[in-house]
Structure prediction request, 315 residues.
Amino acid sequence: MKGLTPPRPIPIKDRAGYVFVEKGRLDVLDGAFVVVDKTGVRTHIPVGGLATIFLEPGARISHAAVALASAVGCLLIWVGEGGVRLYAVGQPGGARSDRLLYQARLALDDAARLKIVRKMFEMRFGEPPPEKRSVDQLRGIEGVRVRTLYSALANQFQISWKARRYDPKNWAAADLPNKCLSAGTASLYGLCEAAILAAGYSPAIGFLHTGKPQSFVYDLADIYKFETVVPIAFKVAAAKHHHRPYDGAPVDDPVAAVRRACRDAFRRTKLLARLIPAIDEIFTAGELEAPGPAPEAQPIAFPEPEASGDDGHRG
Prediction:
């Protein structure tokens, strides 16, 4: 009602993961965030309880829907077919200047960056990396381990595997395992980007990955990829290939099956609740203090009220 304080957005850690919208018009009708199909049927989406909404080709969204998603802190991501290609991101949060400077300082300090890369390696593989290795050397060791894990999973599920490759411009050309992997990793990237923005950091400033708008998203996602999405992708691909059911149902659409299985796995493992603390743990490994404001900096003329959501929330 008019005059009442707006409700606090649900923290990212307490939300459900994501939904994909393939066809339909997203709008706000009668106060509800809905998808309207071509026949006019409305499907309600609990936008305030989601971390991410992926919009595939065939989805349209109104200004009112974008504004509501921003107000509640739900990340909107426009993607290609299967989620394999990212076109744009509507950021509901954003980097806080103090945290952005801290992240940039860690990335620009060679010693701190190496400590962070070593920490991410340890979190990913459950053991510290070899001593006296550079970032490039650690990247090479990681690559060998990852290729070995892919081959082991392919052998375990008795499915043909050549390499991890696909063409973002030609989704149909990818083989079955790569399509399933792309669908799973796209879902994981959406959650990681939502968590990074909610924490007030930048998705672009990475440590092992650099030069991409989602470099830190890839860094963070790689820590959890083989815990969640990669085994699921191979299981679904194997079920489809061998004409077996997955989770008690036939696999008619392997990409959709991967998304549903990843959604359930993210909730079961409480992944969203773990992502922001993981970011703090990674940055603490750099052993640098967060920079304070410059003494000559101009103070804020009109202080804004304290954000009601996560640290990076704009509202």
Residues 97-284 form a domain with the Four Helix Bundle (Hemerythrin (Met), subunit A) fold (CATH 1.20.120.920). The chain has two domains: 12-90, 97-284. The chain has a mean pLDDT of 89. The first helix runs from residue 63 to 72.
